[in-house]
Amino acid sequence: MHKKRLSIAIPASVVSDTPHLREKTSKIGLIGRTAAIFRVDEIIIYPDNPKTNQAADMELIATLLAYMDTPQYLRRRLFKIKPELQYAGILPPLRTPHHPLDRKIEHLKMGEYREGVTLSKIKEGTPVDIGVEKPALIPIEQLAMDKRVTVKVTNVEKRVEVGLVDRMDISEYWGYVVTVEKHPLGKIVKGRSFDLTIATSRYGVPFADVAEKIAEKWKKAETILIAFGAPAQGLYEILRREGLNLEDFADFVVNTIPMQGTETVRTEEALFASLAILNMHHSFKA
Amino acid sequence: MHKKRLSIAIPASVVSDTPHLREKTSKIGLIGRTAAIFRVDEIIIYPDNPKTNQAADMELIATLLAYMDTPQYLRRRLFKIKPELQYAGILPPLRTPHHPLDRKIEHLKMGEYREGVTLSKIKEGTPVDIGVEKPALIPIEQLAMDKRVTVKVTNVEKRVEVGLVDRMDISEYWGYVVTVEKHPLGKIVKGRSFDLTIATSRYGVPFADVAEKIAEKWKKAETILIAFGAPAQGLYEILRREGLNLEDFADFVVNTIPMQGTETVRTEEALFASLAILNMHHSFKA
Q1: ∠ at Cα B20 (A65, A29), nearest 5°?
Q2: Mean pLDDT across the stretch A243-270?
Q3: pLDDT at residue A286 greater than cutoff 60
């Protein structure tokens, strides 16, 4: 059985109130950590301000989040030096199962999963760097070079052989993928048809009031989206600009921080609070 | 009736895994925001590592948290320039009711609360800077200079008069106080006798399993403590070093992040998750 697939959508403007790249990096670091702690499968970054060109912010967020999700041993091969990564050193490690610290080939176990990157192919198949002393081999298949792959160890005898797998088939949490969307949020959701869409807003109903109803839908859903707005403009406003009503767009519009003590709540703060609450309610029903 | 008083206890080592002051400042900024979003009344900082001298870290955390809680208009008078504040510029604003943006004396309303600092006393009483063009007066009372006070506007006629109030008597959220403790956590809690003490630990019971029991105690409690450990050593270990058992120390030991996707959860992350969940469950029973 496939796992549930949990996606979150965050606006490009999440970093726009932070002037310096170093603090933008800190903030994106927190978002990556939050996603991993609560086992998010996909982070969708969407443009929320048609008046400005948000391409650079989206690129920055996507690069840093993907960098965080990449095991240390693959980073140098997959990421060229670029200005966005200037402060990547301050990004906190995810410490997820797909970032193994063991680099010894003799410790590899049959059936173990690893993240890898394909090397130049040979006639027996495709060698792949899986973070141990020597490359493993994907037999027969001839894959393009420098592609990130998820593999399962199928042979640890004479030489290490691995096979391609779909990360959604792994029962442990296996990190997130990052999707950069050019379309506005309403259009994205229409095109993707999630089984359950939850929008967060301080004008929504308190989560506790609809917790049971959400739980019912959650149980049956295979694809779930939780959408977040920006402090400067919430989801009601963002969708209104597309001519959409938030209630039509989402199955539930919930407030996860009733009686907030501060005038505004930032996106990364709402993200943490909402995922913590949803995780507490649904983690055993996954 | 007095409000409930919500205290949180965080270990000094919360900033010890972050090498640079700038990122320490970011992290403390997040802790201050979290406290304000969830209307925390007191942040207790406790030493959690007897093997090292944590005085500098505790001083840093306390200074930055107090700085965040201080309205902008009082900061220059209350905080001398010191190295801990080098990156104070990146601290996010709290945007709480006790940080009013209106600086006009003619907009002051009778009964309005303000944070102020006492100026040199005169025979009519003590002038106090409350962030408007001219000082207000606390009549008769002769207070020491440069003391931070919470006041209520009692006269807006010829001259502005204000009276001292206890911040716990204000129904709006009025920020937090910071307490630096020299004693280890077990001793602190013994000396303070909170009506309800909740400890967080990944080895605790899932919050959902004891939510109802906590709610019962929460309703009656006037003073509540929520205690957090460090990622390098959880509360079980921290208390064991004092010869204490966590279960004896706390009314409840709860895990607020069941099925965490990452190997460790940092203190500031556990803080956000736990307060979000407790707030959702208890905000309307406050």
Answers
A1: 15
A2: 95
A3: no
Average pLDDT over residues B123-131: 95
Give a three-class secondary structure readout of A5-52. EEEEEEEHHHHCCCCCHHHHHHHHHHHHHHHHHCCCCEEEEECCCCCC
Structure tokens belonging to residue A162: 């691995």
A280 to chain B: which residues are within 8 Å by CB? 206-208, 256-258, 277
* Pairs of residues, one from chain A and one from chain B, whose beta carbons lie less than 8 Å apart: 116
Q: Which chain B residues touch A33 with a CB distance below 8 Å?
A: 262, 266, 269
Determine what percent of chain A falls in helix, strand and coil, rounding each to the nearest 5.
Answer: 35, 20, 40
The pair of structure tokens assigned to B110 is: 């009778």
Alpha helices in A116-240 (DSSP H): 185-192, 207-220, 235-240
Chain A hits for B286, Cβ within 8 Å: 259
Pairing of strands B223-227, B196-206: parallel
CA-CA distance, B196 to B4, in Å (whole number)? Answer: 11
Task: Identify residue B252 by its one-letter amino acid code.
Answer: F
Residue B284 clears pLDDT 70, i.e. is over it: no
Q: How far apart are CA B168 and CA A257, in angstroms?
A: 22
The residue written with tokens 């942040």 in the block is B43
* Beta strand extents in chain B (DSSP E only): 5-11, 42-46, 113-118, 125-129, 136-139, 148-155, 161-164, 177-180, 196-206, 223-227, 252-255
Element (H, E) at A179: strand A177-180
Contact state of A258 with B269 under an 8 Å Cβ cutoff: no
Which residues make Cβ contacts (< 8 Å) with residue A179, sequence separation at least 6? A42, A43, A44, A45
In angstroms, how far is the first alpha carbon of chain A from the final one?
A: 12
Establish how many alpha carbons lie within 13 A of residue B95's alpha carbon, considering only the half-sphere containing its beta carbon.
12
Cα dihedral sign, A54-A56-A61-A62: positive
* A144-170 residue pLDDT tens: 999 999 999 999 988 999 999 999 889
Q: Which amino acid is at B112?
A: E
pLDDT tens track for A119-135 = 988 999 999 999 999 99
